[in-house]
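2024-03-11 09:14:02 DEBUG pipeline.ingest accepted 1 chain
2024-03-11 09:14:02 DEBUG pipeline.ingest length=164
2024-03-11 09:14:03 DEBUG pipeline.predict start
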Amino acid sequence: MSETGDFLAATMPQLTEAEIAIHNGDAAPRIAMWSPNEPVTLFGAAVTRSGWTDVRATFEWLGSSFSDCTSYRNEVIAAEASGDLAYIVAFEHTTAAVNGAPPKPYMLRVTTVFRREDGKWRIVHRHGDSLASRAAAGMAERLSARDHQAAHMDSPEVTPATPA
């Protein structure tokens, strides 16, 4: 197996278990996957934190906020391991309850960075964001319109937009 294949085989079952657990209210498996050694950072869908003390407290808060995970799937888009660093880029598809409300599905775009410490892969950074934010949707729409316009500049029916 390749270095990346070995990394994924070692981490994906544990990562999936940890994500299902936190979405059922148990932060302990996620906390166990993280390195307590600085630097560690979290650019979460809800909050941004740095430093192990703040990151750990955030996971405990998240665990107390989630319950009733009815589904979880980690759709890996890309992954690489080289030496003592590795990453996973994925879409996380989750259905869970937040603060006692009925479970609802949502998807996050997630990048997770790992560092090998004492022979074990530990998470040192996670960046997760929702594809459904209004700002992201608006930006994507503007970029798409601009790309479309640039691709069709020779077409007589397309007139370049002027900034307002």
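2024-03-11 09:14:41 DEBUG pipeline.report The chain is about 35% helix and 40% strand.
2024-03-11 09:14:41 DEBUG pipeline.predict end
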